[in-house]
From TrEMBL:
An individual GO BP term: colanic acid biosynthetic process
Originating species: Hydrogenovibrio thermophilus
RNA-binding among keywords: no
InterPro entries recorded: Bact_transf (IPR003362), EPS_sugar_tfrase (IPR017475), NAD(P)-bd_dom_sf (IPR036291), Undecaprenyl-P_gluc_Ptfrase (IPR017473)
An example Gene Ontology CC term for this record: membrane
Source species, domain of life: Bacteria
Protein name: Undecaprenyl-phosphate glucose phosphotransferase
One Pfam assignment: CoA_binding_3
Family in the record: Belongs to the bacterial sugar transferase family.
Subcellular location, record wording: Membrane
Amino acid sequence: MLNAIKPDHSGFVWIHRVIDALLPILLLLSLTQLQNIPWHDRYLTMGLLGGFVFVIASQMVGVYRSWRGRSLFASAKLILNAWLLTWATLIVIAFLYKDSENFSRLAVTLWAIITPIILIGYRVTLRTVLAKYRMHGNNTKTIAIIGAGKVGQHIANIIQNNPWLGYRVCAFYDDNTELHNTQINDIPVKGCTNQIGDIVNQNHYSEIYICLPLRAEQKIKQILNELTDTTSVVKFVPDLFSFDLMHAKTSELKGIPVFSVYDTPLSSTSNQIIKRLEDVVFSSIILVLISPILLWIAFMVKKSSPGPVLFKQKRYGLNGKEIKVYKFRSMTAQDNGAVIKQATQNDPRVTPFGAFIRRTSLDELPQFINVLQGKMSIVGPRPHAVAHNEEYRKLVPKYMQRHLVKPGITGWAQINGWRGETDTLEKMEKRVQFDLHYINNWSLWLDIRIIILTIFKGFINKNAY
């Protein structure tokens, strides 16, 4: 019976926690001394609180899990996420206690920037030293893989291509006799899984990876039973290739591992808060800056043809909930029923001024109001008309997964050229593919990248008419 399946933590986890708790206050002390700023109890409180909150945040986002097998970029991103949570917490506390005037803004700003750099830097240094140590054959673990199928070969390729991990695959064991005495990527297939316990004891493997398909339940149980008579670490790798779980996330429920098959980083409360802060701050600034443009467009729309300035169209929002999205009216007639015809090239319904604001995406500027309302985000999958959703959800696999997040004014699909009319099923499939990539890989930095790229190539597009 499973009582608790714990995440694999770094071997230096307690060292990291101690350093993470002490570094913020030591850096803050150093910065105040370098700038000849008097040190007082407020700085002491902020430094201690910063270290404490960072350790808690790091535990929450997974910073202390094992670094083996995780890229440097992924590890650095986790640290930045933890520090952003810490910084947001400190700002809220300072706001509630109205205590910000007791701090040097320069010192606190430098502290906020330098601290995550140092936290990442010392980990990179430690990891680099360990990697070089392992690449010379030190601290190396020998691995045997049970199952020479797709999963086993994939694990072996990862290990072979990353020698700094300190793993060395010595053998495959598989019951397919045709593979015996052959090599797969220079790794020998040494035999069957019969009497695997004796084989492991004789070869003194450090770790055993069981990479058998889930349908081989009885065989897996037999192998696990035999391996209880060994001193090797045994790891089970689920056959994720048999299902569409390559973007899944894992969690646990009372010690039982659970796979979130269709999920997104934005299902996390902390990430939702970060995303909402991003939307409120950016949309508020943008609306203030573009207010003269909004007034000019409104005047021109009213002058171009009879009808309202704004058009409200029904869309699907977060979790498929119906919302009303604002746009400047660009047509003489607007569809909002069960059947909606997409705008096409030289569409007679589009006014001359409407063609201009559609081509330059200026018709979508009122959607920043939707963002402030919380119905949309600045970055996310573009919202489609309800009628189009009902049509394409039956034709494009995973189409409705686009609604795991709020729709956006711009998105990953749009900056990669998949905007405008979707006159073929392939175009919609491509748009959905890019939208799902964004949903599965969301981060604050990805949003910022999309916003910057939108400025340079997202507004004007040959497919927008």
